[in-house]
Design goal:
- The complex is a heterodimer.
- Chain A is built from ten helices and eleven strands.
- Chain A is of the alpha/beta class.
- Chain A has one domain: P-loop containing nucleotide triphosphate hydrolases (Rossmann fold, 3-Layer(aba) Sandwich), CATH 3.40.50.300.
- In chain A, the strands form two sheets. A nine-stranded mixed beta sheet of chain A has the order 5-4-6-7-3-8-9-10-11, sandwiched between helices. In chain A, strands 1-2 form a two-stranded antiparallel ribbon.
- In chain A, helix 6 runs parallel beside helix 8.
- Chain B is an alpha/beta fold.
- Chain B contains nine helices and eleven strands.
- In chain B, helix 3 links the parallel strand 4 and strand 5.
- In chain B, helix 6 runs parallel beside helix 8 and helix 8 packs parallel to helix 9.
- The longest helix of chain B is centred in the middle third of the chain and has 22 residues.
- The two termini of chain B are 28 Å apart.
- The chains are: A alpha/beta, B alpha/beta.
């Protein structure tokens, strides 16, 4: 009689990781984001979402993984200037095409998506366009900043659900690890503006501001991450020229002095 | 005595006031095939060497306008502002591109090309061609002659109130500068209240009517409105042959 092997807990099966290159975050995630996951990075303005996502892409590009930043609200020319001051940034990454910036409004314009409210058909068109770019450029890391701005033009829960599901599947099928940046108000009691995004994403990283001893600290907390065990503790995030530093809230918070 | 300029059709000039009074805006309308576009070209060519003439075309290429005028031996010393070509380049060509991108997919090259084109184009976005027309007309100094062929293009793409407003602007400039303007309209395409709105603004209405009688067309030129001169309204018979348009009294 054959002995049945015990089933492994899916969370303990070691999935291939996509190291963010941010040491503190990789430690929290046991080595990085499970490759192919679509993660919602959510928080109010000024919490460091865009900076963190840019660092994720730059580290990927340095490691030879083609990385794509899709900017919905800010011009990519301006964003590029934001990464130049970082010690770890190498301008040749852009020249070589390892790090690519694309403006979503250009995609909208090229595809004739000029109506303020996009249809379900438009959702498919956008997802296909992003998938085509990922294929063409062999993209392994992608940031969409912000998904909230896209959802704003989708309006209905049905279309937002369709978009998040399809973009997640399209990117995952291509082995692309992705960060969807989500804007929420500081007082929001959920992780995304429309509530749909958080339910569908493979992971949620919550970024916030915390006032302590007269100082406003940036915080980061991994709320959910499919495919890995992780700490759910709150960390203090410090933006330095050398990149993002993370320290546990109790230790980091007591000292203050973060910028 | 009223200062007038010629239509280029002697019988029509005679029927009105030995020509069209300076400052007038004329509407020429008719069904497709009645010869409205040809009437517009004849009007444009009459005094082209002495007047500044701007011909706004919405559906013909520049060379089509010029070739037609040359075929009839008319003066082609006119400026053509081709709204139809502009619309194709700025709008329709983009629609064609959109279809291609949607079906064949979008590449980085397409995105980069767009960004480069965008940085070169000052008037990026939807150009308002009504504004283009009124701007061009505002630059004209007397003596001038304007032909706008046709209003249907603008009524199709813009809010009707905006088109009527632009027509009022054209009329005001023509009136105050002592030029003449001719606008054309294909009859029966727009709602009657829009046609009525246009007819109310213009000073003179010429309708080209074509009726079938057995195996030939009978052509009538209806002078439907001459501002302040209702006695000048009437009907002429007109013919189109290799020499152009000619008219004669009937009855």
């Amino acid at each position: 009689m054959a002995i049945e092997k015990p089933k492994k807990d899916p969370a303990t099966v070691l999935r291939d990781r996509c190291p963010t290159g941010i040491e503190g975050l990789d430690n929290i995630l046991n080595g990085g984001i499970p490759r192919g996951n679509t993660i919602l990075f959510t928080g109010s303005c000024g919490t460091g979402k865009t900076t963190l996502s840019l660092e994720f892409l730059v580290h990927g590009a340095i490691a030879g993984e083609n990385s794509l930043f899709v900017s919905v609200t800010e011009s990519s020319d301006k964003l590029m200037k934001n990464v130049i001051p970082y010690d770890f940034f190498d301008e040749t990454l852009i020249k070589k095409g390892t790090l690519v910036f694309v403006d979503m409004p250009v995609i909208y314009e090229r595809l004739g998506l000029t109506e303020m409210e996009l249809s379900l058909e438009d959702v498919n068109t956008i997802v296909k366009a992003i998938g085509d770019l990922v294929d063409e450029l062999s993209i392994k890391r992608l940031v969409l900043d912000s998904v909230t701005s896209v959802c704003y033009r989708l309006k209905t829960e049905e279309k937002i659900r369709e978009f998040i599901l399809k973009i997640g599947k399209t990117l995952s099928d291509r082995g692309c690890t992705s960060m969807l940046i989500s804007e929420i108000s500081p007082s929001a009691e959920r992780y995304s503006l429309y509530g749909v995004e958080e339910a569908i994403a493979d992971g949620i990283v919550l970024m916030g501001n915390l006032e302590r001893r007269g100082d406003l600290l940036r915080t980061l907390q991994v709320v959910k991450m499919r495919g890995t065990n992780h700490s759910r503790a709150k960390y203090v995030l410090d933006l330095t020229p050398a990149g993002i530093l993370l320290v546990p809230l109790l230790k980091g918070g007591s000292g203050g002095g973060t910028t | 005595m009223t200062d007038t300029v010629s239509f280029g059709i002697p019988a029509l000039d005679k029927a009105i006031m030995n020509g069209i009074p300076k400052g007038y805006t004329i509407l020429c309308l008719g069904s497709p095939g009645a010869g409205v576009e040809l009437f517009a070209k004849r009007f444009a060519s009459v005094n082209a060497s002495k007047e500044a003439v701007t011909y706004f075309s919405t559906s013909e290429r520049d060379e089509d306008v010029i070739t037609t005028m040359k075929d009839f031996g008319w003066d082609t010393n006119i400026k053509i502002v081709n709204i139809g070509t502009m619309y194709y380049e700025k709008v329709l060509a983009k629609h064609l591109e959109v279809s291609r991108y949607r079906l064949e997919g979008l590449t980085m090259k397409d995105i980069r090309q767009f960004k480069m084109a965008q940085s070169k184009e000052d008037d990026f976005g939807l150009q308002n061609f009504l504004t283009t027309v009124t701007y061009e007309i505002s630059k004209m100094k007397p003596p001038f002659r304007i032909v706008l062929d046709s209003l249907n293009f603008f009524l199709e793409y813009y809010n009707h109130k905006d088109v009527l407003s632009a027509l009022r602007t054209i009329k005001a400039h023509t009136q105050h500068s002592g030029g003449v303007a001719l606008v054309t309209l294909v009859k029966g395409v727009m709602d009657s209240h829009i046609e009525s709105g246009i007819e109310e603004i213009v000073d003179c209405i010429i309708e080209l009517e074509r009726q079938r009688e057995d195996f030939e067309f009978k052509r009538n030129l209806l002078i439907r409105k001459v501002r302040n001169h209702p006695e000048k309204t009437g009907i002429l018979a007109y013919t189109i042959d290799e020499k152009g348009i000619s008219a004669k009294s009937v009855g």
